[in-house]
């Protein structure tokens, strides 16, 4: 998502609307819905409970004029990004940068300062229109979908309601922070994390039991180039986020 015309934006899959609108719309997954541009400041999609949410937070705290965040679309099996974003707004994140209370498996905002999360929670009111919330199984990875007519109407009514509210900008300075992960292209990062998971799982499937149960973590080879080595497999790979890759491995091996 991106937030404001005239402000440095974090890259992502988004559409800018009216510059003085106080409303941002976050669509879970690759959901497609057409609504008039005058009803939102920005409308974008996000797919994960970590990097996707980090981009939303980074962009919103750069623009104090955005006071409402409407989260909509279908919950995604596995990542549960809708649940993660709602829990971040309700509960914040702990000292390990894990979103509190979410059922998402890897909800770590490794590249987001606590100050930004606190501002995000104070700045916006979150409106949860995610339906359905319960997803039994994955039918297709990252499916594209269009909003059903009644879901689009529900979103339209919420945006029109928020349009009528008086929502003055927050009387605080924007918060700017950046790094290679947050400024990176969203689709590339998502694919890179999936590739990282595939490499870890593939290696686990070929390991003997005594190596599989080791608690040895990934070793950072290069901070600058984000290179990590798996000491068990002996392989070196580039990852989109060093800390997130560590959490991902611990999750996949049952340690996190």
Annotate the secondary structure layout.
Layout (H helix, E strand, L loop, with lengths): L13 E3 L6 E6 L1 E3 L9 E5 L4 H10 L7 E6 L7 H11 L22 H10 L1 E6 L13 E3 L2 H16 L15 H4 L2 H21 L2 H4 L6 E4 L4 E4 L4 E4 L3 H11 L4
Parallel strand pairs: 2-4, 2-5, 3-7, 5-6
Antiparallel strand pairs: 1-4, 8-9, 9-10
Helix pairs in contact: 6-8
Distance between the ends: 29 Å
Placed side by side, the strands forming the largest sheet appear as 1-4-2-5-6
Number of individual domains: 2
Low-confidence stretches at least 5 residues in length (pLDDT < 50)? Answer: 1-8, 204-213
Q: Could you give a short account of the major beta sheet?
A: 5 strands, mixed
Which outline best applies? globular
Structure report:
The protein is α/β, with parallel strands linked by helices. It has two domains: 14-183, no CATH class; 186-252, no CATH class. 34% of the residues lie in helices and 17% in strands. The strands form three sheets. Strands 1-4-2-5-6 form a five-stranded mixed beta sheet, with helices on both faces. The chain has a three-stranded antiparallel beta sheet with strand order 8-9-10, with no helix packed on it. Strands 3-7 form a two-stranded parallel sheet. Strand 9 (227-230) and strand 10 (235-238) form a beta hairpin. Helix 6 (186-206) runs parallel beside helix 8 (242-252). The protein is globular, with a radius of gyration of 19 Å. Mean pLDDT is 79; it is low at 1-8 and 204-213.
């Amino acid at each position: 998502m991106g937030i404001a015309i005239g402000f440095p934006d974090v890259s992502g899959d988004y559409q800018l609307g009216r510059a003085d609108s106080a409303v941002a719309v976050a669509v879970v997954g690759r959901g497609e819905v057409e609504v008039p541009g005058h009803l939102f400041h920005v409308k974008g999609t996000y797919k994960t409970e970590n990097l996707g949410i980090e981009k939303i937070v980074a962009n919103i705290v750069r623009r104090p004029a955005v006071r409402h965040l409407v989260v909509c679309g279908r919950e995604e099996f596995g990542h549960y990004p809708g649940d993660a974003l709602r829990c971040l707004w309700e509960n914040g994140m702990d000292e390990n940068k894990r979103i509190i209370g979410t059922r998402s498996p890897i909800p770590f905002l490794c590249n987001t300062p606590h100050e930004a999360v606190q501002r995000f929670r104070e700045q916006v009111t979150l409106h949860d229109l995610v339906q359905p919330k319960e997803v039994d199984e994955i039918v297709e990875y990252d499916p594209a979908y269009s909003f059903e007519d009644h879901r689009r109407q529900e979103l339209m009514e919420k945006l029109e309601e928020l349009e009528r509210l008086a929502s003055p900008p927050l009387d605080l300075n924007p918060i700017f922070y950046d790094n290679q992960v947050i400024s990176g292209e969203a689709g590339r990062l998502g694919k890179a994390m999936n590739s990282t998971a595939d490499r870890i799982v593939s290696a686990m499937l070929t390991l003997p039991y005594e190596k599989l149960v080791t608690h040895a973590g990934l070793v950072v080879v290069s901070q600058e180039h984000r290179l990590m080595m798996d000491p068990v497999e002996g392989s070196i790979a580039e990852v989109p986020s060093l800390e997130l890759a560590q959490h991902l491995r611990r999750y996949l091996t049952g340690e996190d």
